[in-house]
Amino acid sequence: MAKRSYFGTDGIRGRANSHPMTAEVALRVGLAAGKLFRTEDDRRHLVVIGKDTRLSGYMIEPALVAGFTSMGMDVRLFGPLPTPGVAMMTRSMRADLGVMISASHNAYHDNGIKLFGPDGYKLSDAREAEIEAHMDEGLQEGLVGPAELGRVRRIDDAQARYVEIAKATFPRQFSLAGLRVVIDCANGAAYKVAPLALYELGAEVLPLGVSPDGVNINDGCGSTHPASMSAMVREYRADIGIALDGDADRVTICDETGQVVDGDQIMAIVAGAWAEEQRLSGGGVVATVMSNLGLERFLTGKGLKLERTAVGDRYVMEKMRSGGFNLGGEQSGHVILSDFSTTGDGLIAALQVLAVMVRSGKPMSALARQFEPVPQLLENVRFNKGAEPLKNDKVQAAIKAAEGALNGSGRVLVRASGTEPLIRVMAEGDDEALVAQLVKDIAGAVQSAA
Q1: Which of 3, 367, 388, 426 is least crowded, fewest Cβ atoms below 10 Å from its Cβ?
Q2: Which of 70, 104, 291, 338 is catalytic?
Q3: Active site residue 341
C-alpha cells in the first residue's frame, strides 16, 4: 500500500493546530469523506460526531461540520462521548459515517480523528486511502447547492443511551451492591457516563478524573497513570479500581491492594470465565504481537489458542471478525468484546471483570493474577525523520543474534511506531537478565543507525 500522508494506525493524530491536526485538514476530511459517503440516492445522508474533552475539540469539530454540511450531509453532534459509544450510535442511528475527535491516551496538546463506517467498525486502510486521495484534490466541484446544505443538531440523550447499552452487558441477575468502586475517567470522554453506569448498577462509586478543563485530560490520571487510581483504592479501602483513558476505549484495573492488572490479565480473566460458561467463540482469543507469552501459555493450558495480529485494535477486530472470535484486545487495555461492541470499550470490559468477581464471590486480588507473566522488556528508541534504522545491517544482525540466544524460548519484536518516529524494541523470555541484555544490544544498534 502507498505511504499515507494523513492516516496512521488509528486515524489521523498529531499536535493540535499543527499539521495534520489543523482546522484546514479537518475541513478537508469532512469534504472528502462527505463526498465519498454521500451515495447517489435522494435520501438525506447523516454523519454523527463525538469527542473527548480536549480544548482543541472546539476547533476540530466545527471544521469537520463545515466540510460535511458543504457536501450535503446532515450532522448530529454528541458532545463528550466514549469512542465505543460513537461507534454504537453510528450503527443505531443508521448514520453513513461516525467520527470521534480524540487522541485517546495522549496528552491534551494532541488530538485526532477516527472514522467509523455505517456498521460501527473502524474504516479499513483501503477506505482511508480513498479519503486521502480526495483530500488533496480541489473539492469545490463537489459542493452542493445552497438549498441542499446539510443541517446540524445536537443529540442531548447520547450519553444516556450509552449508559443503558453498557448496563445491559452486565448480567441481569447480578448487582454491584456492596462493592466500593474507584473509577478514574482521565478527565476524558467518560467523565459522566462511567460513574453513572456503575452507580445505577448498585455500586458505591468513588469518582476520580471527572473534572475536565480542556487541558487536564490524561494528566496524571487515567489508564496510562494508574498510580492515582491505586492510591485512592488503598485510601478508601475500595474493592476494585477502574481507570479509563481519554476516550474510554481502553482500561486498566487494580485490585483492593492497589496492584495493577493489565489488558493481558483482563483478557485471561474474561476468557477463563467465558470458556467455562461456553460463551467463548472462535476457540480462543485474539491479541497483538505485544501480548505476553504468559497469556499464550495460560490459554494453551486451557485448550484455547491465542491468535496474534499487528499492533492496533483495528487489526485485532479484523482477525476476530474473520475467525469468529468474540474476545480480543491488547496488553495496553484495549479489550474488544464483539458480543457487545465493535471496538475496544473500557467500561464494558470492566463490567465483565466485575461480573466474574460477583459470580465467584472472590476478591479482585484472587482473580488478578491468572498467569505469571514472562519477563518482558520494551524500550523505545527515537530516530531522525527520514532515517530507516530497521533496514540497517547491524540492526538486522542484532535482531538475528537475539533470536538465536532465546532459542525458541522467547520472542523478539522490533517495529516502528505507527504514530511517532520511534522504534519499539521488545524481548521476552524466561531469563530476565538475558532479555534485558538483548533489548540493550538491539536498542544500541538502532541508536547507532538512527
Answers
A1: 3
A2: 104
A3: no
